[in-house]
Amino acid sequence: MLKISNTVTIQAWEIQLTAIRAQGAGGQNVNKVSSAIHLQFDVAHSTLPPFYKERLLALRDSRISKEGVITIKAQQFRTQEQNKEDALNRLAELIRGATVVQKKRKETKPTKGSKERRLKAKKTRSTTKELRGKYKF
Question: From start to end residue, where is composition biased (Basic residues) (predicted)?
């Protein structure tokens, strides 16, 4: 069971975990041991509340397919248990992040001081470039 918040949890049967061989440079056991984890979670057929489902499916994330399946590949650690824990944590963070509502941006105008500084900088630059020109008699 994966805890997302105080009220929302994901049951273990909803998450499909598969052990695969990790990519990368060879080394001891790298071609023999399946230490990487491939996690798949079907958002559309899950027991998540509708609000969570809508927000997740609206995300533009490469880990979410058109069918609404989240795929996470964890291969950072050497052991299968650590990679499994990492994949589950990343899934929980993705779901939590989808529910965060962004603050609406308030439009502001530049201050009088910032306008003056900008114009002064432009004038300084202008005179510098003007001095590079040909000498006038």
Answer: 117-126
DSSP-assigned states of every residue in 61-106: -TTB-TTSEEEEEE-SSSSHHHHHHHHHHHHHHHHHHHHPPPPPPP
Give the distance between the most distant pair of CA atoms in the chain: 88
Structure-block tokens of residue 111: 């201050």
**Which pLDDT belongs to residue 30?**
62
Range list of β-strands (E), 2-68: 2-3, 9-10, 15-20, 36-42
Distance (Å, rounded) from C-alpha 34 to C-alpha 78? 10
Give pLDDT tens digits for 81-123: 999 999 999 998 988 888 888 889 999 999 999 999 999 999 9
**pTM for this entry:** 0.68
45: its two tokens = 């057929």
